[in-house]
Automatic annotation (TrEMBL):
Assembly and interaction partners: Homotetramer.
Domain of life: Bacteria
GO cellular component entries: cytosol
GO terms of biological process kind: nucleobase-containing small molecule metabolic process; pyrimidine-containing compound metabolic process
Residues recorded with modification N6-carboxylysine: 147
E.C. no: 3.5.2.2
Organism of origin: Cohaesibacter marisflavi
Protein name: D-hydantoinase/dihydropyrimidinase
Post-translational changes noted in the entry: Carbamylation allows a single lysine to coordinate two divalent metal cations.
Protein family membership: Belongs to the metallo-dependent hydrolases superfamily. Hydantoinase/dihydropyrimidinase family.
Known cofactor(s): Zn(2+)
The reaction(s) this protein catalyses: 5,6-dihydrouracil + H2O = 3-(carbamoylamino)propanoate + H(+)
Signal peptide limits: none
Length: 484
C-alpha cells in the first residue's frame, strides 16, 4: 500500500517548495508534483515537515522516590498528538548497577512506544565496569551519547574526576557527552540554608538554583570537554550565563550544543510566586524558569544558531506526587511535562511572532537534533529514503491548551490557557497515520529503537587536533643529578 501526501508545501530546514510526498514501506519513495498512490492524505493549506524529534524526555523515570507519570505508552501518544515522531529517553543505571542491566530495564519499558525512540546512557557512578561497558554500549547497543548530572548531589551527581574520566572515555569511543549543568554542591548548600531560614515553599526551589549555578557548571563542563577532546551537548540551557559560555566556546570552534526547553522559552519565574502552592510546585523543575532577560537570550540563540535545538525534558509528575514536597521544597519531584505542546507552542511563540522562520522551526525541532545525534537523514528529513516520520502541519488550526483535553496522564498542564495556532492535521510514524486532527490512531508497540553510530568524523577531528597540541617530554642533554 502506498500513501501520497498531496497538495501541501514541503518545509525542510533549508527549503520551502510545493510537492507531493509518496510513502511506501515506511519510507519516503518519491517527492514531486502530481504523484498518485493507494491512499491520499489531503495536505492542502498545510506544511509537510519532518516530524518533531524530542531529544530529552524521561518516561517512567525513577526519581526522587517515585516514577514520572507518563510511561512509553502515554508519553509517545502525547508526542505524536503534537507532531513529535521520535523521542530520546535516558537510561539511568542505579548506583553500582551494570549499564547492560539498566539497558534491559529500558528495553522492556519501551516496548509500549507508539513512535520511534532512542536512548542516551547516563553515567551515574564510575568504576572499571562502567569504563568497560561504555564500549559495549557504543559498539553493540547503538547508543553514542552519555549523560552526566552535575546536579542532584547524593543521587545522580558525578564529581569532576568522574566527569573528566568519562569525557576521555567518550573521546576514545567516538561518543558525545551530555551534561545537566548545575553545580550540585552549591545547590545543596543553598537549599540547606534556605530551609534553615524557613524558606520551605516551591519558590525556594528557584532561589536555590540561580543562573550562576548553571553558568559555572556549563563553563566547567565545556573546559573539561575541551581538555578531553570531545564535543559536548548541554541539556536544558535556561539562562544567559550558560548560553554565553556555549556561544563563546562555539566562537572558538568547539563543538558545543545548547538545548533550550520550550518551557524556559515561554514561561517565567513569576510562576513560582503564585499564591497557590500546587500551581508553583507543578512548575518545579531544574533548572527553574527564569526572567525575561534570559528568555530573550534563548530566543536570540535559536535565531543566531548558538543554540541548536528545542526539547521538553518531559518528566511529568501528578499533583499528588508534587505534594511529597509540602513543607520541604527539596522533596518536590523535579520535572514538568510538555511533549504534546512543544511544536504548537514553538510555532505560535516562534514562527507566529516572527522570531523564527518556518525553516528554522524545522531545524530546531527536528533536523539539527537528527544531525547532532547522528541519525540524519534517516530521521529529521523529507528526502527519498528517509523514514516517513512526517507532520502535516495546519497553520490555521488552533486550540486553547488545557489539561482537560491533553493526552499526557497528569492532571494539569504548565501551559494551561495558552492559545496556540498551528497544529498537526496528520502525524505519521514510519508511514503509519498516528494522528488525524484530534483523533488518535496510535498503536502501542509500533515504535522501534533507533540505533546511532559513533561520531567518527567529529571525534577524529578533535583527537587529531588534541594530538597536535598534547604534552610531550622535552629531550634534554645533561640533566643534573637529583638534588635529594
Ligand atoms: N529537569 C527536571 O527537573 N527533571 C528531570 C530530570 C532532569 O533532567 O534533571
Ligand atoms: Zn532531563
Amino acid at each position: 500500500m502506498s500513501k501520497v501526501i498531496k497538495g501541501g508545501t514541503v518545509v525542510t530546514a533549508d527549503l520551502t517548495y510545493e510537492a507531493d510526498v509518496k510513502i511506501e514501506g515506511g519510507v519516503i519513495t518519491e517527492i514531486g508534483p502530481d504523484l498518485s498512490g493507494d491512499e491520499i492524505l489531503d495536505a492542502s493549506g498545510c506544511y509537510v515537515m519532518p516530524g518533531g524529534i524530542d531529544p530529552h524526555v524521561h518516561l517512567e523515570m525513577p526519581f526522587m522516590g517515585t516514577y514520572s507519570a507518563d510511561d512509553f505508552a502515554s508519553g509517545t501518544r502525547a508526542a505524536v498528538s503534537g507532531g513529535t515522531t521520535m523521542v530520546v529517553d535516558f537510561c539511568l543505571p542505579d548506583p553500582g548497577q551494570s549499564l547492560m542491566d539498566a539497558l534491559m530495564r529500558w528495553d522492556n519499558k519501551s516496548t509500549l512506544a507508539t513512535c520511534d525512540y532512542s536512548f542516551h546512557m547516563a553515567i551515574t557512578w564510575w568504576g572499571e565496569q562502567v569504563f568497560n561497558e561504555m564500549e559495549t554500549v557504543v559498539r553493540e547497543k547503538g547508543i553514542n551519547t552519555f549523560k552526566h548530572f552535575l546536579a542532584y548531589k547524593g543521587s545522580l551527581m558525578v564529581n569532576d574526576d568522574e566527569l573528566f574520566a568519562s569525557f576521555q572515555r567518550c573521546a576514545e569511543l567516538g561518543a558525545m557527552p551530555l551534561v545537566h549543568a548545575e553545580n550540585g554542591d552549591v545547590v545543596a548548600s543553598m537549599s540547606a540554608k534556605l530551609l534553615e531560614e524557613g524558606n520551605v515553599g516551591p519558590e525556594a526551589h528557584a532561589y536555590s538554583r540561580p543562573p550562576e549555578v548553571e553558568g559555572e557548571a556549563t563553563n566547567r563542563a565545556i573546559m573539561l570537554a575541551d581538555m578531553a577532546g570531545v564535543p559536548l551537548y548541554v541539556v536544558h540551557t535556561s539562562c544567559e550565563q550558560s548560553h554565553e559560555a556555549i556561544r563563546r566556546a562555539r566562537q572558538k570552534g568547539m563543538r558545543v550544543y545548547g538545548e533550550p526547553l520550550i518551557q524556559h522559552l515561554t514561561l517565567d519565574e513569576s510562576e513560582y510566586f503564585d499564591k497557590d502552592w500546587d500551581h508553583a510546585a507543578r512548575r518545579v523543575m531544574s533548572p527553574p524558569f527564569r526572567n525575561k532577560m534570559h528568555q530573550d537570550s534563548l530566543w536570540a540563540g535559536l535565531q543566531a544558531g548558538s543554540l541548536s535545538c528545542v526539547a521538553t525534558d518531559h518528566c511529568a509528575f501528578t499533583t499528588d506526587q508534587k505534594r511529597y514536597g509540602v513543607g520541604d521544597f527539596t522533596k518536590i519531584p523535579n520535572g514538568t511535562g510538555g511533549l504534546e505542546d512543544r511544536l504548537p507552542m514553538l510555532w505560535t511563540y516562534g514562527v507566529g511572532t516572527g522570531r523564527l522562520t518556518m525553516n528554522e522551526f524545522v531545524a530546531v525541532t527536528s533536523t539539527n537534533i537528527a544531525k547532532i545525534l547522528n541519525m540524519y537523514p534517516k530521521k529529521g528529513a523529507i528526502l527519498v529514503g528517509a523514514d516517513a516520520d512526517i507532520v502535516v502541519w495546519d497553520p490555521k488550526r488552533s486550540k486553547t491548551i488545557t489539561a482537560a483535553n491533553q493526552v499526557s496522564t497528569i492532571d494539569y498542564s504548565v501551559f494551561e490557557g495558552k492559545e496556540v495556532t498551528g497544529l498537526p492535521r496528520f502525524t505519521l510514524s514510519r508511514g503509519k497515520v498516528m494522528v488525524e486532527e484530534s483523533t488518535l490512531k496510535t498503536e502501542e508497540g509500533h515504535g522501534e529503537f533507533v540505533a546511532r553510530q559513533p561520531y567518527t568524523a567529529v571525534n577524529k577531528a578533535l583527537s587529531t587536533w588534541k594530538e597536535l597540541v598534547s604534552p610531550r617530554p622535552i629531550a634534554r642533554s645533561g640533566i643534573p643529578p637529583s638534588g635529594v
